[in-house]
Amino acid sequence: MSARLVVLVSGSGTNLQALLDACADPSYGAEVVAVGADRGGIEGLARAERAGVPTFVHRVKDFATREEWDAALAEEVAGHRPDVVVLAGFMKLVGEAFLAAHGGRVVNTHPALSPAFPGMQGPADALAYGVKVTGCTLFLVDAGVDTGAIVAQAAVPVEDDDTVESLHERIKGAERTVLVDAVGRMARDGFRVEGRRVLLGR
Ligand code: GAR
């Protein structure tokens, strides 16, 4: 039986698209059962609609408090009975209620090599620091900002003529490969966590 993936997005959804494309092959072992967002009118939602995947939107500003938004998001996601929740360019931190409901099976992709450059500006921070190698990190979400146990990483070179945009595009290429590979392995083979180490497979 395919693992059920719920994917949360905030933007262009190229990582989501990579997952949708992978899931088209039954041997991949997973299906995207719903796509959620914190805003409407984004390409990520359009990609889901074109693939025939149900979507939902919960905007923080439609709730009285951030906690109520988080609880509503957690409940909506739970309704889709996910085996793995994938934050794929989801530009909000999930909170206590979300982690209480789904913690341990929520992965996030971050455009830097953790533990370097956490936060919203991974590519810009790497470029400004002057590192020659950066990359992407898929991790299990915990209560911190990009601090969770690492599932998979890939390195990407920084070129002398890079802009934030060109560097981020190169990183996103690596992210899509890492995401599809690691989520597929989690879906087909399972995973376990020993301390801070995530071990894919039985
Ligand atoms: C990706 O690079 C992802 O790592 C980043 O947003 C991009 C989404 O691209 N996420 C974060 O920075 C989260 N803090 P996409 O919408 O084309 O998949």
Summarize the structure.
The protein is 36% helix and 25% strand. By secondary structure, the protein is an alpha/beta fold. Helix 1 links the parallel strand 1 and strand 2.
Kindly describe this structure:
With 202 residues, the protein is of the alpha/beta class. The protein is built from 6 helices and 9 strands. Helix 1 packs parallel to helix 6. It is globular, with a radius of gyration of 16 Å. The model has no long low-confidence stretch (mean pLDDT 97). Bound molecules: glycinamide ribonucleotide. Glycinamide ribonucleotide (GAR) is lined by residues 9, 11-15, 44, 88-89, 91, 109-111, 120, 122, 172, 175. The site of glycinamide ribonucleotide has 17 residues, from helix 1, strand 5 and helix 6.
SSE topology sketch:
Elements: E1 3-9, H1 14-23, E2 30-37, H2 43-50, E3 55-57, H3 66-79, E4 84-87, H4 96-102, E5 106-110, H5 122-129, E6 133-140, E7 150-157, H6 164-189, E8 191-194, E9 197-200
Parallel strand pairs: 1-2, 1-4, 2-3, 4-5
Antiparallel strand pairs: 5-6, 6-7, 8-9
Bound molecules: glycinamide ribonucleotide (GAR).
Approximate strand percentage: 25-35%
CATH class of the largest domain: Alpha Beta
Name every ligand kind in the structure.
glycinamide ribonucleotide
What order do the helices and strands follow?
EHEHEHEHEHEEHEE
The helicity comes to: 25-40%
Mean pLDDT: 97
Secondary structure category? alpha/beta
Tally of helical segments: 6
CATH superfamily of the largest domain: Formyl transferase, N-terminal domain
Please provide the count of β strands: 9
CATH architecture of the largest domain: 3-Layer(aba) Sandwich
What is the alpha-carbon Rg in Å? 16 Å
Biggest sheet overview = 7 strands, mixed
Terminal residue distance:
17 Å
User: Can you tell me the residue ranges where pLDDT is under 50 for at least 5 consecutive residues?
Assistant: none
In the CATH scheme, what's the topology name of the largest domain? Rossmann fold
